[in-house]
Amino acid sequence: MLYPAATLVFLALIAVVIVLGFTAARWNAGNMEHIEEWGLGGRRFGTWVSWFLIGGDAYTAYTFIAIPALMFGAGAVGFFAMPYTVLIYPILYVVFPKLWKVAHKYGYITGPEFVRGRYGNKHLALAIGLTGIFATMPYIALQLIGMQTVIGALGIPGHGPLILAFAVLAAFTYTSGLRAPAMIAIVKDLLIYLTVIVAVIVIPAELGGFGVIFAKIAPAKLLLAAPPAGSAGAYSGYATLALGSAMALFLYPHTTTGILSASGPQVIRRNAVLLPAYSIMLGLLALVGYMAVAAGVKDMPQYAAGFKQYGTSFAVPALVLQSFPGWFAGVAFGAIAIGALVPAAIMAIASANIFTRDIYSQFVRGSVASGEAKVAKRFSLVMVAGALVFILVIPTTYAVQLQLLGGMWIIQTFPAIVFSVFTRFFNGWALLAGWAVGIVSATWLVALNHFAGSIWAFHVLGFTLPSYIALATVVLNALVAAVLSLPLNAFASDRAGDETRAEDYI
Amino acid sequence: MIKILLLLVFVLVLAVPFYNHAAPVLFGFPFFYWYQIAMVPVASLLIYIVYRVEHGGEK
C-alpha cells in the first residue's frame, strides 16, 4: 500500500457507511412496497434531516473535485460557484413550497408528474421525464469519476474497487430507498465540514497565509478579464453561468426528490435560510484550488502520474496527500467518496421514480400501483449499472461533456415546471414545442463549441453579449411557448385537462 | 412586497463589474473573493427576513 494509514481510515469509513445504508430501511420504517416510502422516504423528513439530505444531494463529490480543479486551472471564473449557489435559495424559497403542496395533495413524486397533472398531457411529461433521466445518467457517472480519483490517489489500482463500491450502492439503494442516502448524508456532511474547516486552517498556515496564496495566482487569473469595448465579455459570461446554473439545479430529478421528501413547506422555507451554510463551505473549498497552486503540487514528481491521468481534478487529492498526515488524508478521501455515494443513490432513485410514474405506467403498462415500488427498485439498478458501464467504456472527457450538455437540457424544463406553479397561461403543447426548440438550439450551440465550452458570444445590435448557452436557449424556449400558447388557448385549449385547482397554488 | 428582498439577492450577486476588483483586501482575500463569500450570509439573512414576515408564525 502506498499510503497505509490513509487507506485503512478510508476503508473503515466506507465500511461504516455500508452498514448504515443497509440499516437505514428500519429508520422510521415504512412499507417499502409503496413507492412513496421507497422513493420519497414517506415524505417525512424534518428540517435537519432535509438539511443534510438536500445539502448532500446538491453539493456532490463531483463539485468538490471539479470546482477547485476549475479554480486551479482557470482561476477566477471557477468562483461562479458562489453566486450560483446563493441564487438557488431565493428560487427554492419562492417555487418549491408551492410545488410541494400540490405534489403532496395529488400524490405526485416527480416533477414530470406535476406537469402531467397540470396539463393533462402525458407526452409533455414524457419529454420532461426523459430530459431528467438523460441529464442524470452522466451526472451519476461523474460521481463515479470523483470517487475513482480518490481511490486512484490512494494508489489502489484497477476498476475493482469502483465496481465493488457501486455494487454496494445498488444493493442498499434497492433495499432502503431514499432513507439510505438520507442517513449516509449526515455522516458525509459532517466529514466534509470537518475536512474543509481543517483544510482552510491548516493549509494556509503551512503556506504562509491567504495573502501569500493569492499572491501566487497569476494576475490574469485572479480577476475576471475586463471586457473589451462593445462587449460584455467575461462579466456577462460569469453572471449568466451563475444564473442559468441556479435555475437548473432544483430541476434535476435528484434535487426535486430531495425537496419533495421534506415533511412540509415550512421545512423547505427554513432550508432556504439554512442551506447556504453549504455554499460558504463550497467557497472555501474552491479556494483549495488556489492553495494547490501555491503549494506547487503540480511540479512535484510524486504526483506527476496522478495529474497525467486525472488532469486538474487531481489538484485536491494531491494537496490533501501533501498537506495532511496519512490518517487525515483518509478522512478527507472518505468524505469525497461518500460524497459521491449520496447523490448517486438519490439520482438512481429519482430516475427510477420518473421511469415508473411517467414512462412505464403511462406508456408500457396501465396502472401498476401495486407493483410500482418493484418497477422502481429494478430501474434503480439499471441506472447504477448504466452509469458504471458509462465510466468503464466511455472516456472521462465524454462524461464531462455530456454532463455539460445535461445542464443545458435540464434547464429546458424550467418553463413547464416553474412557470406552471404560478400560472396556467401556457398550453401544454406550446410548452412541448418550446422545450424542443430549447433542446435542439442548446445542443446545436454546444456542438458548435465542440462540446467544450458552455458560453456563446451572441451579437445583439452590434453589441457582443457572451452568455451561458443554457440561459439564452431557455429564454428562447419560454418565448416560443408563450407565443404558441396564444392561438392554442384560443382554438384548442387544454385547460379542462388540469386536475389541480387554482386554490392549490395560494 | 417583502419578497423584493429576494430580488435584491440577485442584484447583489450578479453585479459582476461592481465586485471584480482586487481592492480592498480583507484578511489577505481580494475583494472579488471576500465579497462573494460575504454575500452568502447576507442572502441567508434576507431570505430569513422574508420567511419571518410571510410565514414566521406557522408551524
Question: Would you give an account of this structure?
Answer:
- The complex is a heterodimer of chains A (506) and B (59).
- Chain A has one domain: Up-down Bundle (Sodium/glucose cotransporter), CATH 1.20.1730.10.
- Chain A is built from 23 helices and two strands.
- Chain A has helices at 4-23, 35-40, 47-58, 61-74, 81-106, 111-119, 122-153, 160-176, 179-207, 210-215, 219-222, 233-249, 253-260, 265-274, 276-295, 304-310, 315-323, 326-364, 372-393, 396-410, 414-422, 428-448, 469-491; strands spanning 455-460, 463-468.
- In chain A, a hairpin with a 2-residue loop joins strand 1 (455-460) and strand 2.
- A two-stranded antiparallel sheet of chain A has the order 1-2.
- Chain A is mainly alpha-helical and 506 residues long.
- Chain B has one domain (4-55).
- Chain B contains three helices and no strands.
- Chain B has helices at residues 4-14, 16-19, 31-55.
- The model of chain B has no long low-confidence stretch (mean pLDDT 94).
- The A-B interface holds A 76, 79, 82-83, 85-87, 89-90, 93-94, 209-214, 222-224, 226, 235-236, 238-239, 242-243, 266, 269-270, 272-274, 276-277, 279-280, 283-284, 287 and B 3, 6-7, 9-10, 13-14, 16-17, 20-22, 25, 27-30, 32-33, 36-37, 39-41, 43-44, 47-48, 50-51, 55, 58-59.
CATH architecture of chain A: Up-down Bundle
State the end-to-end CA separation of chain B: 22 Å
Assembly type of the shown chains?
A: heterodimer
Terminal CA distance of chain A reads: 60 Å
**In order across it, which strands form the biggest sheet of chain A?**
1-2
Strand content of chain A: under 5%
Shape of chain A: globular
Of all chain pairs, the largest interface belongs to:
A-B, 40 and 33 residues
Radius of gyration of chain B from CA coordinates: 14 Å
The helix tally of chain B amounts to 3
List keywords for this structure.
heterodimer; A: 506 residues; Sodium/glucose cotransporter; 2 strands; B: 59 residues; mainly alpha; 3 helices; 68% helix
